[in-house]
Amino acid sequence: MGFLKLQGCSALIYFCLLFSVYEAGHVTIKRSIDPSASYPLITDDRLPKDVIPQSYDIHLEPKIEENAFSGIIKMNLTWKSDSKKISIHAHFNLDINDKKIVLRKINTNNSDSQLSENISVVRGSRFPKKTIYIIYLKEAIKEGSECILEIPFEGSIWESGEGLFKGSYSNWTYLATYLRPNNARRLFPCFDEPGFKVPFTVSITRPSHLFTIFNTPLNRTINHSTLKDYVIDYFETTPPMSAFTFGFVTANLKKLQNEIKLDEDTSIQTEPVLSLWGFEDNANQFKEIHQKVIIVHKAIQRYFNVSLPLSKIDVVVIPELQVVRPVDNWGLLLFKESDLTQNRYYDIAQELIYQWIGSWVTPEWWTDAHLNKALASFLAADIVFKIDGGIEFNGKYPMTTLYSIYYEFSKRYPHSRITAMKQETISYKLELVIRMLNFTLGKDSFQRGLRTFIEEHQYKTFVGNDLWSALTKQATMHGTLNSQYHVDDIVDSWFAIHRLPVVTVRRDYEKRTAAVQQKLYLRERPHDVPEQEKMLWWIPIVLNRQDALNFSNCTPYVWMERSREMTIDNMPPSDQFIIVNQEEIGPFPVNYDERNWQMLSKFLQTETGRTLVPTYTRSKLLHDAWNLAYAGDLSFATALNMTLFMKFERNHIVWNPVFTFIDQIGRHIDMPEVHKRFEEYVLILLTPLYEDLGAETEGEDNWKTDLRSLTKRFLCGAGYRPCIEEAKNAYSVWQHLPDPNLENPVPNHYICPIFKWGSMEEFQFGIERVLQFPKSRKQNERTYLLKTLAGCPTQPEKIIRLLEQSTLEENSNFTENDQFLIYSSLTATSSGHYTLLKFLSGNWTTIREKLINNTNLWDHLIGSATGFFLTQKGYNMVHQLYEEHAGEFGSAQHIIEKSLRNIKEEVLWSEENLPVIETWLNNFLSKNSSNSS
């Protein structure tokens, strides 16, 4: 159950940033930010356990026109110890008149359990700065007593999607609830904690022309006694549930009848009726969605092998639902129309899984919500694979998620500023650890353990160890886990350290042994993270060997039990490679000795090798090699050798990370002559792929469209002649329009090549289009144009022209935001930041006088002009600027000093790696013709 769900760049930090630059296809998996990101916002208002609820009887009376509601709740309470007060949750915005509170004791000696005397209520008051309301009694009530507490209340209907809120669609108004994570207290006084699970008996007033759907089916409807054209709906009593799973929607809804007949599962006797609801004018559009809901529900039910204790699940589609994520009440799901029209199973599966694990089986507290989310996300992905083989994911699960956390956790200081991003990646990591357990414990053991877990925690709450214990017991019983191991120990090592390991396997080919080491995985330099030697994980060493390849066997050869190093025996002969952590079973990269890498590279260049090694494993080997080289743990010659098989590779999953590598390494080649050779290499690498992909055809798969688009963009950037000619022709059309400011007919992917490879006349035409851009057009078009003007050219004269007009001219139409964007974009290429520094040095006095009092822009300029050099030459230039203008940097003094420190680290990397890259490229280009350019 997602206590609080916020949509992130379905957070996919690494790839989303890259794909946004090159406008690749859509990332299929949409993610929600882990609820623990909101810990500072979720108060730890825990209630004492001296008085606990047994059931609620609630009547709600929304007044839509007045944006208000009133109601009354009757709580059946039991005293676990003597007490003179009752503590409940009630939001500050919920009005309670303590003089109207009534407490009656239940006469338990009477067989009819009739109410006896009233208990005097002295007063009610709020706990300071907490959403706790305390009712003080005249005398203590004894342990074991039962009472009915009756509280009238009033509140406001919210415009935003929390508590009880109001929205509109077309000419219709609707009411809906969103009570997660702890917003039930906004709607009625209650015990608003996950652990308090009780039955709810509910009645709700509504206008007679609208319809109300609640967690449970409608029992009966009567006319309101005082409000004309209003009725009261009485609903069936709910199963025991937490307050945040309470929900209803009141709207002009139409039910799509359950007409779909699918194969019945005779192993499950009962199941809820699934109905789809929509507004009158759009309900008939969703029959396909209804079928998907039923298919997904049956798949989940088969997986868990248990039906929910619900008679129905209603799925309501609201076009403009005012929440970020779907609302998953127990038995009632609310989706924004756009969430369902994207034709996906994943979102439906995730929300339905919360019906089992979230509503029926519930996390004990907010701190356990990340586990619930990670488990639901993994299971939803697993269900999608079972339904369509993973077609929906387009090959991006789990690789996109995995690569994003590889990138983030390998920084010296991950998530240093963004708490939400930290919680999101931590949740993703736990999801991948759960996936690792599914493989290493065995899918059957994992599934049976999960079934046992659900059976033991029905209507209850859980903490993480409850799940791990169930999995341990089942895996031990099946023999897939050593009886001395416990899943809790394995998971704790991954969750306690917000980092990731790298495993290095170095073979002794004579002794046929291998030394296996683990250490903290770091890409960002310097590798000086404190106490990294203490960071150790439980790591499954799943091993495949060339003489006995079997990628379906995921049983660990051995577990590294938080040990720094170990030796394993019985390695294959010296002419046979090994592969560790196939298919990214665990979230960690793997390094090998040089000889093993060479054998892998040669094997993948054979048709047999590419056939025998699965897609995800080929992708992993390539991704690991490049990232390890980038981190300084592997020779770049070895990493580049691992790309040689790409000449024959056509699978988009394997190609996806290649574009990231080209971009990153291209930015790190801070030597023009080497960069030119690198672009020739890119042309040779990508041209056969692009030509094989051919022209776009109607109805082709999304992956093919996305791959063609990415390939063409990188080819254009590397100087692919057909692309440059196409770009020039398209640009010429724009240049000859009667009024070129009215529109830009040039496709975006041709803009950058023109500014990089085109003439100065073409470049100046682009500047003029920015300066004369009409306000009537979309401003993001102007932003894109300006970013490419600054980020694409490699000729200094073009960059200087842009800087002169944007920075030096007194009457420039360039805004301060434009200047920020230009300086940032210039850091994308070595030519850009070299030219920016020379421009700053040559016009120091003028620029300083213009910007020194604008500290934000001045600091940004100094950081952009000095912070991206990687070689000794660049260091010398920055240091010369630092000495020549000592004492003149003002607020940017610390920025240039930090730049100098960072460049020193990068110089070491460049001196070690750029000569290796240059030598490899020279050898490669001498053997391969670049005629394809």
Automatic annotation (TrEMBL):
InterPro entries: Aminopeptidase_N-like_N, Aminopeptidase_N-like_N_sf, ERAP1-like_C_dom, Peptidase_M1, Peptidase_M1_aminopeptidases, Peptidase_M1_dom, Peptidase_M4/M1_CTD_sf. Residues 298-494 form the Peptidase M1 membrane alanine aminopeptidase domain. SUPFAM superfamilies: Leukotriene A4 hydrolase N-terminal domain (SSF63737), Metalloproteases ('zincins'), catalytic domain (SSF55486). It comes from the Eukaryota. One of its GO terms (cellular component) is extracellular space. Residues 53-244 form the Aminopeptidase N-like N-terminal domain. Residues 577-904 form the ERAP1-like C-terminal domain. The keyword Manganese does not apply. Transmembrane segments: none annotated. Belongs to the peptidase M1 family. This is Aminopeptidase.
